[in-house]
Specification:
Oligomer: homodimer
Number of domains of chain A: 1
Strand order of the largest sheet of chain A: 3-2-1-4-5-6-7
CATH superfamily of chain A: Formyl transferase, N-terminal domain
Order of helices and strands of chain A: EHEHEHEHEHEEHEE
Strand content of chain A: 15-25%
Shape of chain A: globular
Helix content of chain A: 25-40%
CATH topology of chain A: Rossmann fold
Number of strands of chain A: 9
Radius of gyration of chain A: 17 Å
Distance between the termini of chain A: 38 Å
CATH architecture of chain A: 3-Layer(aba) Sandwich
Chain lengths: 221, 221
Amino acid sequence: MENETHALRLGVLASGRGSNLEALLEAHDQGRLAAQVAIVLSDRPDAPALDRARRRGIPALVIDPETTRARLKPEIEERYVSALREAGVDWVVLAGFFRIIGAVLLENFPDQILNIHPSLLPSFPGLHAPRQALEYGVRIAGCTVHLVNAEIDQGSILAQAAVPVLDRDDEETLAARILEQEHRLLVETVDRLAQARIRREGRRVLWGETSPGITRPNGGD
Amino acid sequence: MENETHALRLGVLASGRGSNLEALLEAHDQGRLAAQVAIVLSDRPDAPALDRARRRGIPALVIDPETTRARLKPEIEERYVSALREAGVDWVVLAGFFRIIGAVLLENFPDQILNIHPSLLPSFPGLHAPRQALEYGVRIAGCTVHLVNAEIDQGSILAQAAVPVLDRDDEETLAARILEQEHRLLVETVDRLAQARIRREGRRVLWGETSPGITRPNGGD
């Protein structure tokens, strides 16, 4: 198992349940992740993600956004940056963080903030991606881990996983099937980031030959 | 093997090489397709697709578009419709047909014209989809069989196949990997159309539980 003092240090921002955070924590506990969660930050005092971290003795702070708007004020983002810096964070992972990342965080962690989105971007950016996919009628949905930039869900793509859409699917069943893959893809991608050095060619991200994250359909051919 | 007099009759429109046409013809020859190509129509006298049909004794006509514009004149579309009607065509398949289908064909074959597009729609509609996918930097590309309507590449989706994008891919290698899946997906989808009765819910197409067309990455995880 990796020497933790040299493992990649993650700062996780989460507003909700934190199941993607849990996936990272479990993978680390099981030695499947060459990175450790150094701190968890939330905009919501009641976010279950906070308890998941504290149960493992990982610092978990609430930083009051002082607004209901999606976009954080710069002075609030400064507080996030300070907490992340104090924790010695290398990469920031948005794991269901219901706020829009602004210039202060982006400038302090350039190309070091990643997000997981429940669609095969560029299809279905924004809210309720599984619902959008069902309404459009795609037969293949999925999820995307991407770098965060100033435009929502438009940063360079690090990894994607495909998920079949079944006739019987409703938003809940499809979102659940996608979420399973989010957990796997996020862990795989962070682990690869900890061990690989990615290259950029325009929007394109290049790193080694293995292509993670295409799943077989349940009951498919 | 199915009694051909009752098999679904296809009219295939092709401008180019006709490799998707060839996939349909081979599948039929091998008894893998409960449908037969009744006629092939092209806007180009030199389209190899014409020879592929004639070699099998299938009627193959060139209908001169009398224009270089992508959109056919209504009177030309009438000639396509007449030829398709005379051949007793049930479904029209666009297999690399480099023209935009207009009102005359759409009204004569409502929801009976299908197209195969080399992307996971709604991502990358229009020309050079594999190039668009590479430039955007997706890790999963694919192809889509969809019903043709008045808006280009926006008809209801019948089936999709996912294809991994590899670091070493250029437009040619990715397009070739997608094309392999186009052949498989088109044959599977036409065969299912010949045997299933699809239901529509808004844009969504429902037909039985199997979900075709998610492939595993070459050398993937």
